[in-house]
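Hi support team,

I submitted a single chain yesterday and got back a structure, but I'm not sure I'm reading the token output correctly. Could someone confirm the output below corresponds to the sequence I sent? I've pasted both exactly as they appear in my results page.

Thanks,
R.
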Amino acid sequence: MTALDNRLRQALAPWRTASAWCVAFSGGLDSSVLLHLLAELARREAVPALSAIHVQHGLQPVAAAWPEHCRQFCAALGIPLQVVAVQVAAQASVEQAARQARYAAFAEHLQPDAVLFSAQHRDDQAETLLFRLLRGAGVRGLAAMPEQRPLGRGTLLRPLLDCSRAELQGYAEAHGLSWIEDPSNADTRFSRNFLRQRVMPLLAERWPQASVALARSAAHLSEAEQLLGELARMDLRAAQGEPLFPWLALPSLELSLVTQLSDARQRNLLRHWLAPLSRMPDSDHWAGWRDLREAAGDASPVWKLADGELHRADGRLYWLSADWLAPPVLPDPAVVRVQGASELPGNGQVQIRGELPAGRWHLRYRLGGESLHLPERGRRDLKRLLNEWRVPAFVRPRLPLLFDGDELMAVANLAQSASLQACGVRLHWSPPIGAQGLSW
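Hi R., thanks for writing in. Yes, this is the structure output for that exact sequence:
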């Protein structure tokens, strides 16, 4: 058994009880070696069911022959293969678009609790660190590729990150493996290829262990990122505070508990909090956070990010996305269901709890000038009541209002008129929750 086999077996030890093993198989050198190693292991030992998946991007004519090569390679090993064709979105970076399409396909086809093996190695890790360093990445980006991360309903694992490209090529040649040479890998117009073909060999002339050192630095930065994550989670728990409206199920934080931290810890906290919700801005665009944080107390500042908006209301931060970014539209005609919930387009659900007396009942949103007759308080202007209740500005246009003819009778979740309260009727609103995070 070779040193490569031993290192692989060590990396696989925690994953022996996975529901299945699947290899991301491009047909290139690296994934061919990984698949061959796993197939040999499966012949000697009991392991989860092993298969392979090949993603066909359709970006170059020569790639049309690659699925057949992959089928023949897998057939020789007795490994089932799935070929998935994807559409690569047109955008500035073809590499990034292809990667997004590829990993989306992997996530979609991965079984629950299965492991997808990807064949990136130490040289890839070094190139990734250098590439991101040149792009000005922070600690999270410079941690480069993690050994494992969630993917779809399973886990992505990179078991060869401690192995060099030379080791993999030596194994392939020793076992007589054939593999695909992607001609685009020689095109130095692509940044990663330029680093691999021009920069890394030059570094290795002066520092023969350059790849090892860079990969080691990535590991140190990964550890630093873990510590920053732990600090962010501690700060996040402390910054939750007590939301004024528990029924408003939006991600939110108490601003005063955030701003008592140093600027660096504020940014670390916000990156951790918002990372599952939105792509984060580069350093130059963090001025938006400073503007929101330091706006006058009676202002309603907004920080717009790629996938939503951060609002400030009554000393609290709220993340708004999806339905919250468009004005709601009532059904036409607006129908009040005495029983069960009524869907409000783009605005969650509303429900009448209790039995309404006879009347001309309907729902609508604020138009201005409404007033409500409250028990023991008499008639009050709705705008003043919303100020008194400290309802965030972005919620006010969405609050379902229940009318009997032209008379306002209830404000969802907040108040009922004296006559409805006597009947035991409540108007309950379940607001939209917004997008639940980035898929991967």
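A quick pointer for reading it: The chain has three domains: 3-224, 240-320, 341-430. Let us know if anything else looks off.

Best,
Support desk
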